[in-house]
């Protein structure tokens, strides 16, 4: 029990956030007291229970789940504020997400030694999912990237492919030098990574990116490139190959900007959205109005006009947060992601298993860059590419994927010193 | 460990991106947002406007010039006098945005009293009235409705501007530009396409933003520079034409006036005298004087103004001669020329012009008050007094006799400015009245009229001054 009370403060903060958010919404007449009470107590109880499980059973990093809960709380509050039904559904998704969190946690914790063996299986599964989407997918917002199966909620395969991508890269870079004559070879002793492995890595990265391009998932394609470049930088051991890849990525981007009208539209909407307020620039201009009207302090929850923002419950949820909670609220949310990404890298740094280290690094980069891409996009810092804001955007696939990612990080943080002696 | 070092590098890079986001959001909120949210496309502006009844705009005597009427959930902005205030009050339109006072004073027109103030006051009195919390502040302008109406009538279909103001306080009585347009919602929507395409640019606020060669009216500034530089006794034998810096200059009609001094030169508007005087004054002194008279300055005002700078850069003697008689590259707005007249009228001091006197809530509580303040010391009060006498002479027995008003002395200076259209000179008149106790400075300008300022502008000034006397706006 001592452990439970050691770091209780952030948990209390979380409960306070819950209570204040729900109270504000009740005052503003967005919701009925009963619904709010159920939502609020469910969130609080769940958070306490999860925190207890993680601390009492020594399941590793005790901050991870608290940060996740805070972000999810903000998500549920914002979703309920925009649409009461969406709020309840987000709540249910959160419960499902928590379930996946623990499934991922235990599966990864128990079987992590086997995960590094399936390099090409991950790639094959990704390609299969892409092909399946291309054939049986449904078109939404001009892109064929959803699968609607009868009797099941619709899913967005590209969300899950992200995890497979990190796993395959981690496996290919760490296994390339892990076993030689049945023995682990310490990282520093290895002179050079085999160039065939590098080529395989490049093949995996570019084949994934190509599929995403074809699906018009520019945001996720960008995310994949960022992860790939991070892996190459850390594990590549070959400056020339790194440079060649950078050139190739820039060339691909150049080709995209030059010849793909869809990308050109986004670039021109980014450079001068006010040039075509009712057309190309519509989304970004509406987003900037919302953030601008909020100012530093915000209008207050329930007092803004989030319904004037397009796609407000998913891609543009950050603009609605800035409008009602202010830019200071938005910055606070960014700081939560900052902490989460920092914890992720810390888990990677303290992990002693090379494969786990690489996986934790890849997942942290993914989380950080994804947040940057969408927040930078809706604030017009970078061109807008549709991608979800982790934990807050409405959407089952995104929610479950992110919780699986967190479960894996939690698992890695709880695995201690198992391979230490083998390396040293 | 080398590996961990690299991971740390990647971590710092990713985390730095978050700090970039935070920095950018702060920058955006501080520097960009205030401008962006004013955009006409911001739907929240119109959401708010539905809830608040926009304030009424009155002239100086309480005549309603603009008011909002409720029509269910919507409001309609009504301008009862149609086109004559389009270039001063502007319009407030859902599709086309806001201009002029409707734009510059939007925050006041939409400002409501604080809840506490309303509760504190006795709410029992006017029950059933408009809820004070949902009515924006009203504006009281310094404009004089009868003078503006007369100015519009006198200008008729001619293109040009009329500016009249109190030289002692800076209150603007009349600011009219022709051609103009009807800012009422239905009319604006109906005529928008035609108005935007018309070659005579009815949307262009000529009085405040039109830049024209001021012609001989600028000789007032040259004369002030001459006196302040100690050349008040300068005389010249005017033979009707002269050469300055290799460039020939002629008087209007080539008339020769013989040996004349500054008083004669202003009365008859001698080009020969002033081009020669400019060579004695020099370009630096004339530039400084032009600056003191604010002719090249965007004067701070309640609506946007315009000015052109750079006239005196790389100027040679011939060009200096041209500028001294209001030609060459010199371009000045009618509004600024009215301020030149007001400087002579007010002992050499230009007062900051203003048009919005007060913003006040329905219950009378004032939230904005204009206070007269000096804008610039244009010339010495001695020079102002001397030039005033010369300008009186110009109206008594010179080029400006058409500006005479029975019973009082009017001071004035005419101008006929050549421009890029051959034979289509701009006609100007600047002046003030009564000369011994100036209460009204005026500038009348007709663009591309082809007539002299003394024949087409001075009579308009006379009628406006007469009207102001009759209405009691000015006294003998």
Walkthrough of the structure:
- The complex is a heterodimer of chains A (424) and B (476).
- Chain A contains 16 helices and 4 strands.
- Chain A is mainly α.
- Chain A has one domain (2-423).
- In chain A, strand 3 and strand 4 (183-184) form a beta hairpin.
- In chain A, helix 5 (84-115) packs across helix 15.
- Residues 184-191 and 418-424 of chain A have low confidence and may be disordered.
- Chain B is of the alpha+beta class and 476 residues long.
- Chain B has 17 helices and 19 strands.
- Chain B has helices at residues 2-36, 43-51, 100-104, 106-109, 115-120, 145-155, 185-197, 206-209, 219-228, 262-268, 271-281, 283-292, 317-324, 334-345, 381-397, 453-456, 458-471, and strands spanning 57-58, 64-71, 74-78, 92-93, 97-98, 138-141, 160-165, 172-178, 236-238, 241-244, 247-250, 258-260, 349-351, 356-360, 366-369, 374-377, 411-417, 426-433, 440-446.
- In chain B, helix 11 (271-281) packs across helix 13.
- At the A-B interface, helix 9, helix 12, helix 13 and helix 14 of A face helix 1 and helix 2 of B.
Mean pLDDT of chain B: 91
Shape of chain B: globular
**Unreliable runs of chain B:** none
| Number of separate strands of chain A | 4
Intertermini distance of chain B:
95 Å
Order of helices and strands of chain A, N to C?
HHHHHHEEHEEHHHHHHHHH
Largest β-sheet summary of chain A: 2 strands, antiparallel
Class inferred from helices and paired strands of chain A: mainly alpha
Quaternary arrangement of the chains shown? heterodimer
Q: How far apart are the termini of chain A? A: 35 Å
What spatial order of strands do you see in the largest sheet of chain A? 1-2
Going by CATH, the homologous superfamily of the domain at 209-353 and 377-471 in chain B would be DD-peptidase/beta-lactamase superfamily
* Largest sheet report of chain B: 6 strands, mixed
Share of residues in strands of chain A = under 5%
Helix count from the secondary structure assignment of chain B: 17
